[in-house]
Amino acid sequence: MQVLVGGIDEAGRGPVIGPMVMAIAVTNDMNRLKAMGIRDSKELSPAGRARLFSILKSTLNYIDYEIVEPRVIDNYVYMNALNILEVEIAIKLINRALNSVSPQVVYIDSPDPRPERYRDMVKRGVVGNVEVVAMNNADKLIPVVSAASIVAKVIRDSIIEELHREYGDFGSGYPSDPRTMAFLRDWVKRHGDLPPIVRRSWSTVRKLLSNSLDRYLS
């Protein structure tokens, strides 16, 4: 009997600009993924990710993803519930996969340092008979999770390219990137507020807006 194994991972949890993307990949041949050189997307160049993504589209049994916009991320961060957001999206992805290809087991890269707690929350929302395995560093350890990480990263990178064309060069979008922070400061100076692609709940952004308001009032 063909055993279908799924993997879930995200891209873009940490940046201050742009969405987060969570993806699920399902395969019936984990060894083939290993032989292809599938590994965590962070260990691959953009060109390497794009090449493997192209192959994965015709190799995997199933691919699906969710794009989570900054305003949605902000709502959960304000509630200190970013992991809950990931739980809810993982449930959506698994339930849709069960309706389509029925994987027997799904591995998830857990954002929670206690993966069993994360697994239990996901399992409560899954409708169907599937084993859910949550692991820290699953994107490095389980090839089908690595495949999901490549899918999520390539989809997110394509969105970021579009945002660059629309808003200008804001760098990587991470708060540690000087270009990103310079872009945000300049945007606030020129427009008095931030564009909708920015996560307002990030501490660096709240501080930037607070400093801008202080200068305006002084």
Structure overview:
- This protein is α/β, with parallel strands linked by helices and 218 residues long.
- It has two domains: 5-164, Nucleotidyltransferase, domain 5; 167-217, Ribonuclease hii. Domain 2 (Arc Repressor Mutant, subunit A), CATH 1.10.10.
- The chain is 54% helix and 15% strand.
- The protein contains nine helices and five strands, in the order E-E-H-H-E-H-H-E-H-E-H-H-H-H.
- Strands 3-2-1-4-5 form a five-stranded mixed sheet.
- Strand 4, helix 5 and strand 5 form a beta-alpha-beta unit.
- The longest helix has 25 residues, at 143-167.
- The protein is globular, with a radius of gyration of 19 Å.
- The termini are far apart.
- Residues 213-218 have low confidence and may be disordered.
Please outline what is shown here:
Residues 3-214 form the RNase H type-2 domain. By secondary structure, the chain is an alpha/beta fold. It has helices spanning 30-36, 46-59, 70-78, 82-100, 115-125, 138-141, 143-167, 178-191, 203-217, and strands at 5-11, 20-27, 62-68, 105-109, 131-135.
